[in-house]
Structure formats: structure tokens, C-alpha cells
Design brief:
The complex is a heterotrimer. Chain A is α/β, with parallel strands linked by helices. Chain A has a single domain, classed as 3-Layer(aba) Sandwich (Rossmann fold). Helix content of chain A is 35%, strand content 24%. In chain A, strands 6-7-8-3-9-10 form a six-stranded mixed beta sheet, with helices on both faces. In chain A, strands 2-1-4-5 form a four-stranded antiparallel beta sheet, with helices on one face. In chain A, a hairpin with a 2-residue loop joins strand 1 and strand 2. Chain A starts with a strand and ends in a 6-residue tail after the last helix. Chain B is 86% helix and 0% strand. In chain B, helix 8 packs across helix 9. Chain B is globular. Chain C has a domain of 291 residues: Pectate Lyase C-like (3 Solenoid). Chain C is built from four helices and 39 strands. The longest helix of chain C is centred in the first third of the chain and has 28 residues. In chain C, 44% of the residues are buried. The chains are: A alpha/beta, B mainly alpha, C mainly beta. At the B-C interface, helix 4, helix 9, helix 10, helix 11 and helix 12 of B face helix 4 of C.
């Protein structure tokens, strides 16, 4: 589904991706974890075509990325920060994206009722709460039934009920055979949602494998503890300094 | 190869997407009332000038003075502000199956044309109901068209600045103000200094070339060609007389204005296409 | 007659009736003696010169439509020549077409074309030599060297003629209506185009020039020299090579004329050179390089004129003194006033200046701050003409404003102390 070979990316002097190789097969739910600044977001943005790699090759559904754009028909992306034009009405936003994608929004109704967005549809995005905006983002990501789903810190602004509903929905998508990629700081959440973990540290993939395997290798019960142990054992001298930034909730 | 692609025409699907984006921008901008307020300012200004100032030429000249000074500033700030405020939204759009070129033109046209329309309609209505449009259609249309063109040019420049200083807003706004001050005021001061410093040399060609390099000066020259031709023809130099006295002046100036729109828009597109968001 | 008593009426009634009868008979016989001669291409008289030779003084010659190739037609007696349906006299590019050398000749309704051209002689469509009370009306002159040429005439009326030529070189074109050494002529409602000077007067006294349109001439629309006590009123002078020149005269009235679109380095709406004690009122100066250019002219009153969109509305040299500019409208001229000296011996008061930025707190319609019509930029341009290209730029506006607040280089005394707040209608 997604094949990444030897991916490099620098922003000016800052080398963010230092040769990444990753293969994510179809139907797999993968969590991407790592401290702030480790390159998680850059990795996702590169797959989405927002960031152009310095070198390396990415294939999505066997399509090689070279500034092309049609492959994104199969991707639904929910950004970390949901900010939309303030004067736009929710319904218009949905219509606008529908017009852009020219695909049938098969799950539109379903997602709206699932996230209780019905009463919000005619409100302008300015007055919408942060949680509701996140729900709109989730709806936009999933309503066209894409084969690939990217969620960037999806539950950060959601209340427990919405968060629960969101997770249920992702569970369903998984069962439907979607390939799911989630970045999150909330390890417990990842434990529920994904079965594979990519651990990125300082622009490199330190671990990629199944959740059970990770826990087993590190002799821990919980993902959080396993990750923490991996970071302690990291040979990278820069990690000490960066550790303070890492917050696991 | 990429250059070719930039120039290549959009195909029908892309055209449809383009109009879809433009329509959406129009809708949200008009709801934002900001653009309408901007148009109203020109409406009230023009109407007031006509009520108190009297004649058509007087009003059109006052309007062009305001226009030459403020449209560049407003256009640039508006362009850069759009880039800064719509960052997340633009990024969301970039993750949709749409190419960057279509998106760029859609966004640029979608936000620059409402601002242009606000000026044109705002200034045109009073000119219409006070009869200036009918009495002096050539000059009225020229002033309105120049204002519209300046709007497009400076929104494009604002876009370029916003994309160039994507992460550093303070720098972006700083450059906007500096560029405006330079183009609107300082540049002409430098020309005057050059004229006095090198006064013993033939300067006509240099002076014409120098004004062609600043879009505000270009627009001003076109205003001069309409309203001050009698003074310009009083100048003895052959190059000036050739330039101002024949159609070559108006043709060159219009061509340069179009170039001034095309170049920033093209640079904006290139930056937008290559940019990491 | 009503004053007569009834008896007296009876007594003299018959006699009076007789007298009346006799006078009417004698009048009839007199008009019988002034014969009508008809000239027609079909004969019997086919030549205008022949008709003139046949005619006796006072005769009326009617010329029917057709083409007559004749030149130097000499009219040496009092005659009326009337063209019916614009007969065409083709001068065949030789000499004058008509020569009038007698008093009280009337010529009307002809189409005259192709006079001779010469570097030595001033050949004309109609040449009038030392004649009084000549009337030239409603003729059309085309492709002539000089149009209507009056030399040492008295009185006379030139009315409603149209004169047009196509020679664009100043040196080889002649004047449309040329007056030399004439007294009390009236030049009314003529239209002149494409000549050297549209209307030319030299040593004319008491001329009245009204309602003419003199456009697109190679040099001056009106060229006026050594002609005192004259009036010109309601004329239009448009797109002439150098505008209008009024020189070396006194007591001239220039009223309600239109001077427009005279562009060029030495082109003026109105050039005043050595004009004294004259009046310029109610004129419109529109889009001229210079509206009024005044050199060595004194005591001229310039009152209630409109100066609109000129390059320089007024260019007044310091050799001009005691001229008064009052209640004029100065509207969006590139420059209002230019002068060549920091001293100013002329008076500006109560004009409307569209560039005026002052205020009127006591609401009496007069600005509370004086207006300085000479801009700093005007002085900059005199030094470095190329800087003209910076006209209307923000930088120049700032410079001008600074100079207005603290005048250093502009003439301190050239001020309108009572600028009007609104346009004078």
C-alpha cells in the first residue's frame, strides 16, 4: 500500500528525515510515535505530497509520487489543527470539498449523525467549538470512503464521548479493510486503535513491527512504558536533551 | 519542463475545479463583509468628492491619487494576510486530489477578483449616477481599469511575500510595508536624485525606463497620459515627445503593467508548486 | 398725415396720391436699369468674367450651378455676385480666383477652389484691394493658398464662409482670412481649417471677430498684430499648431472664446505679447500646453475665465506688470502658474483653485489660508525638465506640500489672498 525507500528531507540546515524505509501493507492499522520534532508530521506530509522529499522514493498504491496528485483520491486526511475560513458554513465546507474531489460522499450522512453534527451544519465555522471542528475534519477525511486514512493527533480536542465515537468509527474502518495511519501522543489510545507501531527518533525509524512484538521485546505491559524504555536505551546522544519535550499523557 | 507545465493551459476538469474554488472564495469573502466595506469606502469617497469637488476631471484625479497610494498597500496586505490566515485550510486543500497549479490560480483569482470588483463597482456607481461615466467614459474607464489592475498586481505580490515568508509573519508584514514605501514614495525620490545628479547627461531614456520598472509609476504615467498630455507635450526632448505623443507610450505602459501582473503571479505559482507546507 | 385737418386732406389729397404714384414708377424704372445677368454652363453667358465685363455698376449677376474654370476674375465695379447651388469656380492653380477692386461688392454662395500658389505673391481665393463695404458671404473655399485677403479695406463683412486647405507645411501654406491695414472689418461666423494662420490681422483698427471657428491650422488660429481697439468674441480655436497670438496692440477685448487642445513646446491657448490695457473675460482654456502666456503685457484684466486641464494655466513672465487675475477657475491644471522671477508685479485675487487645500472656518466662501499657485515642482522642472515625468507622484506632492508650508524657492508675493472655496459659475 505504502512503500517508502531511503527518504531524506532537510529544511535548511535541519535534517528531518534521515533515510527512512517503510512498508505498510494494505489493511494494516499503524501508529506513528516519536517525540516532538522527530519527523512524524514531515513523514505524513511527504506521503500526502505537502512536502517534497530531497531524495528517496514513495509509492502509494503502486503509484510513484513525483508531484502527481490523482493518488490522493484514495487518501483521507484529518489534520492536527482544524482551522477553516471563518465565514464558511459547515455545509458549504462539505459541499466545497465534495466539489473538489468529484467523488461520491458515501458516508456523509452516516458520519454527520454519528458525530452529532446535524445541529452544527448551518453554523459558520467561526462559532464552532474546537471539538466540533475536529469532528468536521474527521468527517471530511472519511466521507469519501478512501482506502487510506491518515489521522494526525485525532482525539486531541475531543471530549470523551466524541473520542469514544471516533475510535469506534476507526475500528469499523479497520474492519472494512482500510489502511490506517495514526500519529498520537496518547499511547493508550494507540493501544486500542493500531496493531503496528512505527517509532521514529531523530529522523530515523527505530522500531517498526507489531504491537505485541514491541511489548514483548521490551518486557513491558503497556506501550507507553515500552516506548519510554526504548528512548532510554537509545544510543543517540541528542536524546537526553530532547527528552524534556516528550510528553506522554 | 516545469516551465512548460506552468504555461500549459488547464484542461476542462481543472477549469471546473478552478471555477469551483473561485466561486467558493467569492462566497466566503462577500459574507466576510470586509470586502464590501472596502468597496463602500470607495463608493463614499467618490460620491463625496463628486458632491463637493464638482467636475469629472477633478474627481477622477483625486480618485487616482487615492488609488495610486492605497490600493498597492491594501492589495499586498490583503494578499499576505490571506496566506497567513488560511494556512491550515490551504494545507487541507493540498491534501485533496487536486494539482497545485489549479489550486494556486483558484485561490489567487478567488481572492483578488472580489477585491478588484469592490474597488471597480464602489468607484463606478457614483461616477455613474453623477453622470461622469457618460460624460467622460474614456477617462473613467481608464482610472477604474488601472485601479483594478493595481489590485491584481499587488495581491499577487502579497501572495509571493506570504509564501516567501511563510513561517515569519513579522518579516512578511515588514517587507510589505517597506516595499510599499519604496514603490509608492521613495522610488520617485531616487529618480529625482538621479536626475539632479546626472543632469548634464541625456536622461530621457533612463527616466522612462526607470518608471517602467515600478508598477505604481506605470499606473501614474497612464493617468498623466490621460490628464496631463498638454503639459507633457510642452517638453522639448524628442524621446519624451515620441513616447508620450504617440500611442507607443500607452502601449508600452499597458504592456509593462501586464508584465507586472504576470511576473509576480508566475513567481508565486513557482514558489507555491515547489513549497513544502 | 393724421395730423392734417379733414379740409386740408381734401385739398392736398389728390396731389399726394399723384406724388406717391410717381415715386413708385420711378423706383420701378430704376430697378429696371439694374439688370440681372445669368451665367450658366448652358449659356448664353458661360463665363463669369464675361458677365462682369457686360454688367453696369449695380447689376446683379446670378451664377448657376456648374464648373467654371476661371482665374483672376476682376470685379472693378459695384456688383452683386450670387451663386445658385454653389457653382464651382476652379482657379486651375493660377493666380487669384476673384479680385475685388471696387466698393460695395457682394459675393455669396460660391465654391472656389485651386488658387495659385507662390512664394512671391499672396494668391487668394478672394482678393479684396482698397475697397469699402465689401460683403463676402457663405462661400466655400477649398485648396486655396490664401483664402479671403483684405488689403487696405474699410468696413465690409466676411460672414459664414468655410475655408479649408490641406498643405501641412507652415512655410508653404497661406492664411485663411488675411487682413492687412484695414479699418472696422467684421469677421463673423466663418470656419477656417488647415491654413497657416486661420485669421490674420495686421494693422487692423476696430475689428470685430465673432463666432468664428478656426481649427487645425498649421500655425495660429488667430494671429493678431498692431491692431488696436478690436474685439473678438465667441470664437473657437482648437488644435492649432501654436494656438492664438495677440501681439503689439492695446485696448483689445477678448470675450467668451474657447481655446483648446493646443499642444506643443511653443504652443499656447493665448499668447499675449506686448498687449496693454486689454480685457480677457469669459473665455475657456482647455487642455493647452500653456493657457495664457504673457510677455511684456501690462494692465490686462483676466476675469472670470475657466482654465481646465492645461499644462500650465498661466505662464507670466516678469516683464508683464500690473495684470489682474480675478475670479477665474483653475481646474486640475498640471501647473497653475509659472513665472521666471521670484518677484511678482501682478495681482491674483478671488480665484478658484482646484488644488487649494485650505479651509474656510467662517464660511464666507473664501479660504482662510492664502493660496500659492506656483509649485516648487514647477521650479524643479525649469531646472531639470526630465523630472516632468514625476508629475503627480507622491514624492513630488510631499515636496510641494512642504514648500507651501514653508516657502523658500517659490515667489513670496505671488499669492491669492482670497481663494474661493467653490468653483465660480
Amino acid at each position: 500500500m505504502i512503500r517508502i525507500e531511503n527518504l531524506h528531507k532537510s529544511f535548511g540546515d535541519l535534517e528531518v528525515l534521515k533515510g527512512m524505509n517503510l512498508h505498510i501493507p494494505k489493511g494494516q492499522a499503524t501508529g506513528i510515535v516519536g517525540p516532538n520534532g522527530s519527523g512524524k508530521t514531515t513523514l505524513i506530509k511527504t506521503i500526502l505530497g505537502l512536502v517534497k522529499p530531497d531524495s528517496g522514493v514513495i509509492h502509494v498504491n503502486d503509484v510513484k509520487l513525483n508531484g502527481n496528485w490523482l493518488y490522493r483520491q484514495d487518501i483521507g486526511y484529518m489534520p492536527q489543527v482544524a482551522r477553516y475560513p471563518e465565514n464558511m458554513i459547515v455545509r458549504e465546507l462539505l459541499e466545497f470539498i465534495k466539489g473538489l474531489r468529484n467523488q461520491e460522499a458515501v458516508f456523509e450522512e452516516e458520519l454527520i449523525s454519528q458525530f452529532n453534527l446535524g445541529p452544527e451544519l448551518d453554523k459558520s465555522l467561526r462559532v464552532l467549538s474546537g471539538g466540533n471542528r475536529q469532528k468536521v475534519g474527521a468527517t471530511l477525511a472519511m466521507m469519501f470512503n478512501p482506502q487510506l486514512l491518515f489521522f494526525d493527533e485525532p482525539t486531541a480536542g475531543l471530549d470523551p464521548q466524541a473520542s469514544f465515537k471516533f475510535k469506534k468509527r476507526v475500528e469499523k474502518e479497520k474492519q472494512d479493510g482500510k489502511t490506517v495511519l495514526i500519529t498520537s501522543h496518547i499511547m493508550s489510545e494507540l493501544e486500542q486503535l493500531v496493531d503496528h507501531v512505527v517509532f521514529i527518533l531523530d529522523g530515523k525509524i527505530r522500531y517498526y513491527g507489531s504491537m505485541e512484538n514491541l511489548l514483548e521485546e521490551n518486557k513491558e505491559e503497556r506501550l507507553e512504558a515500552a516506548i519510554a524504555r526504548m528512548m532510554e536505551n537509545s544510543p543517540d546522544p541528542g536524546i537526553e536533551a530532547r527528552e524534556t519535550e516528550v510528553t506522554f499523557q | 519542463m516545469e516551465e512548460d507545465e506552468n504555461i500549459k493551459k488547464l484542461n476542462p476538469v481543472e477549469m471546473k475545479l478552478l471555477t469551483h474554488i473561485i466561486k467558493n472564495e467569492w462566497k466566503t469573502l462577500i459574507r466576510g463583509k470586509w470586502v464590501i466595506g472596502y468597496g463602500l469606502i470607495f463608493l463614499i469617497l467618490t460620491d463625496t468628492l463628486l458632491r463637493f469637488g464638482g467636475g469629472g476631471a477633478e474627481v477622477l484625479l483625486s480618485l487616482s491619487n487615492v488609488m495610486l497610494l492605497f490600493i498597492p498597500l491594501v492589495g499586498m496586505i490583503y494578499g499576505i494576510l490571506y496566506i497567513y490566515q488560511s494556512r491550515e485550510f490551504v494545507e487541507l486543500l493540498l491534501t485533496q486530489p487536486i494539482n497545485r497549479k489549479t489550486l494556486f490560480w483558484g485561490l489567487f483569482c478567488g481572492i483578488s477578483t472580489p477585491l478588484m470588483a469592490a474597488f471597480v463597482v464602489g468607484a463606478m456607481l457614483p461616477l455613474g449616477w453623477h453622470g461622469i461615466l457618460a460624460q467622460d467614459p474614456g477617462a473613467s474607464v481608464m482610472v477604474l481599469a488601472l485601479g483594478g489592475m493595481l489590485t491584481l498586481i499587488f495581491v499577487a505580490l502579497g501572495f509571493v511575500l506570504g509564501l516567501a515568508f511563510y513561517e515569519d509573519r513579522i518579516k512578511g508584514f515588514g517587507f510589505t510595508i517597506v516595499i510599499w514605501l519604496f514603490m509608492a514614495i521613495l522610488y520617485d525620490g531616487l529618480i529625482l536624485m538621479a536626475i539632479f545628479t546626472f543632469g548634464d547627461y541625456p536622461l530621457e531614456r533612463f527616466v522612462i525606463a526607470a518608471t517602467m520598472l515600478n508598477p505604481i509609476d506605470l499606473a501614474r504615467i497612464m493617468v498623466l497620459l490621460e490628464f496631463d498630455i498638454s503639459a507633457l507635450m510642452g517638453y522639448t526632448g524628442a524621446v519624451f515627445r515620441q513616447f508620450f505623443g504617440t500611442n507607443s507610450g500607452i502601449l508600452t505602459a499597458s504592456g509593462m503593467l501586464v508584465l507586472w501582473l504576470a511576473v509576480p503571479a508566475w513567481i508565486g505559482l513557482r514558489v507555491f508548486k515547489k513549497k513544502d507546507f | 398725415m393724421n395730423n392734417y385737418k379733414p379740409i386740408q386732406l381734401h385739398l392736398f389729397g389728390g396731389l399726394i396720391l399723384l406724388l406717391l404714384a410717381w415715386t413708385s414708377v420711378s423706383e420701378a424704372s430704376a430697378s429696371d436699369t439694374a439688370a440681372d445677368i445669368v451665367v450658366s454652363p448652358d449659356g448664353p453667358v458661360v463665363s463669369i468674367q464675361e458677365a462682369v465685363n457686360m454688367a453696369r455698376p449695380g447689376d446683379h449677376i446670378r451664377v448657376e450651378a456648374g464648373v467654371y474654370v476661371e482665374s483672376n476674375i476682376m470685379i472693378d465695379k459695384k456688383l452683386t455676385l450670387e451663386g445658385i447651388g454653389y457653382p464651382e469656380i476652379d482657379g486651375n492653380l493660377e493666380g487669384h480666383i476673384l479680385i475685388i477692386a471696387a466698393d460695395s461688392v457682394t459675393v455669396s454662395g460660391f465654391f472656389l477652389k485651386n488658387s495659385g500658389r507662390s512664394h512671391v505673391r499672396d494668391y487668394a481665393g478672394i482678393y479684396i484691394d482698397k475697397a469699402k463695404d465689401v460683403v463676402i458671404e457663405n462661400n466655400r473655399l477649398d485648396n486655396i493658398f490664401f483664402g479671403i485677403y483684405l488689403s487696405a479695406t474699410e468696413r465690409g463683412v466676411i460672414r459664414g464662409n468655410e475655408i479649408r486647405s490641406y498643405e501641412r507645411r507652415e512655410s508653404s501654406s497661406g492664411n485663411g482670412i488675411h487682413l492687412w491695414n484695414v479699418k472696422d472689418p467684421k469677421i463673423l461666423d466663418n470656419k477656417v481649417e488647415g491654413q497657416r494662420d486661420g485669421i490674420y490681422l495686421e494693422f487692423a483698427k476696430g475689428a470685430e471677430i465673432s463666432g468664428n471657428r478656426s481649427n487645425n491650422n498649421n500655425r495660429y488660429g488667430l494671429h493678431f498684430m498692431f491692431s488696436d481697439d478690436s474685439v473678438y468674441r465667441g470664437n473657437t480655436f482648437n488644435k492649432n499648431g501654436a494656438g492664438v497670438a495677440v501681439m503689439y496692440s492695446k485696448n483689445v477685448d477678448m470675450i467668451d472664446n474657447i481655446f483648446e487642445n493646443n499642444w506643443g513646446t511653443s504652443s499656447y491657448g493665448l499668447l499675449l505679447k506686448d498687449i496693454n490695457d486689454s480685457r480677457i473675460t469669459g473665455n475657456r482654456f482647455y487642455r493647452n500646453t500653456v493657457g495664457i502666456d504673457s510677455e511684456g503685457s501690462n494692465r490686462v484684466i483676466v476675469h472670470r475665465n475657466d482654465f481646465e486641464l492645461n499644462g500650465w494655466a498661466v505662464n507670466i513672465k516678469s516683464s508683464s506688470r500690473e495684470n489682474q487675475f480675478t475670479e477665474n477657475n483653475f481646474i486640475e491644471n498640471s501647473f497653475d502658474v509659472r513665472t521666471d522671477s521670484p518677484r511678482n508685479p501682478n495681482h491674483f485675487e478671488g480665484n478658484y483653485w482646484s488644488h487649494y487645500e485650505g479651509y474656510d472656518l467662517n464660511r464666507d466662501g473664501i479660504g482662510d489660508v492664502p493660496y500659492r499657485p506656483v509649485r516648487l515642482f514647477s521650479i524643479i522642472i525649469q531646472r531639470q525638465p526630465e523630472s516632468l515625468i514625476l508629475l503627480r507622484s507622491m514624492f513630488i506632492t510631499l515636496l510641494d506640500t512642504a514648500e507651501r508650508i514653508m516657502p523658500v524657492l517659490t515667489p513670496a508675493t505671488l499669492i491669492d489672498e482670497k481663494p474661493k472655496m467653490e468653483r465660480i459659475r
